[in-house]
Design goal:
Radius of gyration of chain A: 21 Å
Oligomer: homodimer
Order of helices and strands of chain A: EEEHHEHEEHEHEHEEHHHEEHEH
Mean pLDDT of chain A: 96
Number of strands of chain A: 13
Structural class of chain A: alpha/beta
Largest interface: A-B, 110 and 110 residues
CATH class of the largest domain in chain A: Alpha Beta
CATH topology of the largest domain in chain A: Aspartate Aminotransferase, domain 2
Chain lengths: 392, 392
């Protein structure tokens, strides 16, 4: 009934000994339909940030559902959410909402094009901003001739390449995640001075800076990941964690982009559904109250440090990259070819999953504020046995 | 805080004496934040089909919310929904899900391109399939040079133009709504034999037929609008009414498109949210149990017939177009220029809205199964006074 069965990013772990369907999810755990319970270090690939079934979020959602969800008019919660987001995100003056992260990245590029009157988009090699044609690699099935013509792809941390692209083309915008979190590769932080250099180059040429904070948003800094790195983008995209699992995304922007945001045509039937907006207001408030980034950073650091120590004890080298609340793990082994090293790493991940700690081999993992000391301790026990199993 | 304040399609009625924010919505009514209650003939622009806050749908949603919404795994309700949809929609063999109608139209075009190895898309002038760049008019702000290069636009009901386009270009697909429902113009049914001719031309050339049933889906026929008109598309897009207001969209397709659907890269973080899927299963079952299309067709016919009679009694000519459950209204007046005639029509709509019947002047309206005989009678009373007010 469904091509590929489980499709999209959920297809990745299928067939490698991982569970396929959840039955229930609560807090930091989910239980699959075979009644196995897992500590969930994927957090639904980001959305779950406060824990599954968070009482305050679910109450806000249920209260709004009793009043109405998608109605012929907007709900006042639209304004409440815009105010909340503009208040907390550094340097932005307005917000617009959609459903998918890609709604917000697509809108960001449209706004940047409208603001600059230019077409070209500079992105990062391996940077992911959704599955629209222009965002996909040109040779992917279904991507039309010419769909990528306006896109220039450069290496991460290469400010010189950005300057060259700006010199060579009429560039409307530079779109990038705040740090580089591709799949199947160590994640990379910005080099010292990288974002400052990007900012200077883009300002000088009137190129809009779009931060795709869909994945990292609220896990580095509640004021946006650009606040963590100390630079000032024109447009910032949010999604994933914004509604703690309720489907919503947002584009925020500065006053300099406001007229362009008013000029472009952007809408969707489901964009005005009020329940995810109410859930998002409750999520953001709760994140602020508990100082969520510090909590997650601490949990992520302790988990990663514990895993590295265990790896060492077993004679392995576990490389941790990315940000503390979104760790990417890789067992490095210079004695093995790249493919064999990844296979060994995947065997370790599989043993962790089968032991009850849900991690992925090829994608960064996610920490939530619902993860407890017990979750860390249990995960380390599981990981310990998993490292042990690699030697047998 | 929000560019344009109320944006997108919700901005249309703003500033013409219409309410802006809802407070509560139930059944066929909503109440605005100033405590005015309206009979809602827009149905959230389509999603509301069983009535706001429908008990069976909301119970299914709440039960699923208690188990989990967006989790690191899919829910079995994904399979249940695919089975339900494939069972009820004529001629389709599989389903994939997203959030927005545009997720499903974008995916449909990707699948058609992957299946055919061609790039060109034929669409209908004024046909609406979302706000992605390739779907927008080329001169809209933010639409890049070249984004429409692969799109050929032809007039509705012009099978000869379609044949010519196919002869002149490497056409991957023809995308169209099942009947023509543009804004600001009478809606148009397919001419006798039109869809059969389209089918023959497309089959002969290996061009995929995509029906965008996002707006009309389930209001003409529960087996899909193509079943109503008696033709066999390759791909059918659903959205809007699928979840009775819970954000979800679907692409369904035939076996001939299955491999292409497996080959394309399509995903989204929010695509696997289980609550809207549970709501959609409940919505579809309820629609089948009550034979919803017949109910809505009957309500729509009675409403439209009553309005036409009233118009006549007041000396006006109310033109009704579209399908019975999605009527487009226009007061025709050959004595006035087009703009003045529309202004007169808009004054009538405004008087209806201010009287408590929420209609739109420039867009088709929507009927739901929640609309009662009382709703029709009250709306006709309101419309009667509104026609009267036009003469004063």
């Amino acid at each position: 009934m469904i091509p590929n069965g489980i499709y999209g990013h959920y297809a990745g772990p299928v067939g490698v000994g991982a569970p396929i369907f959840f039955d229930t999810a609560f807090g930091s755990h989910f239980t699959d339909i075979d009644n196995n319970t897992y500590i969930d270090w994927m957090c639904a690939y980001g959305p779950m940030i406060l824990g599954y079934g968070h009482p305050a979020v679910e109450k806000a959602a249920a209260d709004q559902a009793a009043r109405g969800n998608t109605v012929s008019l907007a709900s006042p919660v639209l304004v409440e959410l815009a105010e909340q987001l503009v208040d907390m995100v550094d340097g932005v003056d307005w917000a617009l909402f959609g459903k998918n992260g890609a709604d917000s990245t697509n809108l960001a590029v449209m706004v940047a094009r409208a603001a600059t009157g230019r077409s070209k988009v500079v992105k990062i090699d391996g940077g992911y901003h959704g599955t629209s044609g222009w965002m996909q690699e040109p040779d992917r099935p279904g991507v039309a001739a010419g769909e990528r013509d306006q896109v220039i792809s450069i290496a991460w941390n290469d400010a010189a390449a950005l300057k060259q692209a700006i010199a060579d083309h009429d560039v409307a915008c530079f779109i990038s995640s705040p740090y580089h979190h591709p799949v199947l590769a160590d994640n990379e932080q910005p080099a010292d001075g990288y974002w400052a250099e990007v900012e200077t180059a883009c300002r000088a040429a009137g190129v809009a800076i779009i931060v795709d904070d869909v994945r990292a948003g609220f896990r580095l800094d509640l004021a946006g990941s650009h606040a963590h790195y100390g630079f000032s983008p024109d447009l910032v995209c949010f999604g994933k964690a914004l509604g703690n699992g309720h489907p919503i995304a947002a584009l925020t922007g500065t006053d300099s982009m406001r007229q362009a945001a008013m000029d472009v045509f952007y809408t969707g039937t489901q964009f005005f559904s009020a329940v995810p907006m109410a859930a998002a207001v409750a999520t953001l408030r709760e994140l602020l109250v508990i100082g969520a980034t510090d909590v997650m950073t601490d949990v992520g650091r302790r988990l990663s440090a514990g895993l590295v120590d265990l790896a060492n004890a077993h004679g392995f080298d576990l490389v941790v990259s990315g940000s503390p609340a979104m760790p990417y793990y890789r067992i490095a082994d210079p004695s093995l070819a790249r493919r064999e090293a990844f296979a060994q790493h995947s065997r370790w991940i599989k043993a962790c999953v089968q032991g009850g700690a849900y991690l992925l081999s090829y994608h960064n993992n996610f920490v939530s504020v619902a993860h407890t000391d017990d979750d860390i301790a249990t995960t380390l026990d599981i990981a310990d046995r998993a490292f042990g199993s690699l030697r047998t």
